[in-house]
Amino acid sequence: MTYLKAFGYQNLKTKDSLTLQSLIPVASVSKLFTALTLANYAVEKGISIDTSFNSILPGNQRLSSDFEHISLADLLNHTSGLTDQSSIRTLFFQVEKTENSATCLNS
């Protein structure tokens, strides 16, 4: 069972109520959860954060050679060299040439 309901105001001045579709800017707060999740994963799998991102992908999946140098530490320290959303999207999605549809690497 899942309970879905939004509480509070989206805008305090106008008293617009929050909805389940409301976007809430969390800014850097999410970095803490990302770092803790990655640290837990690294400890659980016995890997270093200096490990290449490519080496932990499942099966024979690999990122393009443009991203070969990126380590988990680079992602956490924001020193990976990724500069825009299209580069980041390329990390996790590959485009199938036959149908022109995006497919997640994890599928």
What would your notes on this structure say?
The chain is an alpha+beta fold and about 110 residues long. The chain is about 30% helix and about 10% strand. It has 3 helices and 4 strands, in the order ββαααββ. It has helices at about 30-45, 70-75, 85-90, and strands spanning about 10, 15, 95, 100-105. β1 (about 10) and β2 (about 15) form a beta hairpin. The radius of gyration is 18 Å and the shape is elongated. The two termini are about 25 Å apart. Residues about 95-105 have low confidence and may be disordered.
Spatial order of the strands in the main sheet? Answer: 1-2
Query: Helical segment tally?
Result: 3
Distance between the first and last residues' Cα = 26 Å
| Oligomeric nature of the chains | single chain
Helix-strand sequence: EEHHHEE
Poorly predicted segments:
95-107
Query: Strand content of the residues, in percent?
Result: 5-15%
Please count the beta strands (DSSP E, at least 2 residues each): 4
Please compute the radius of gyration using only Cα atoms: 18 Å
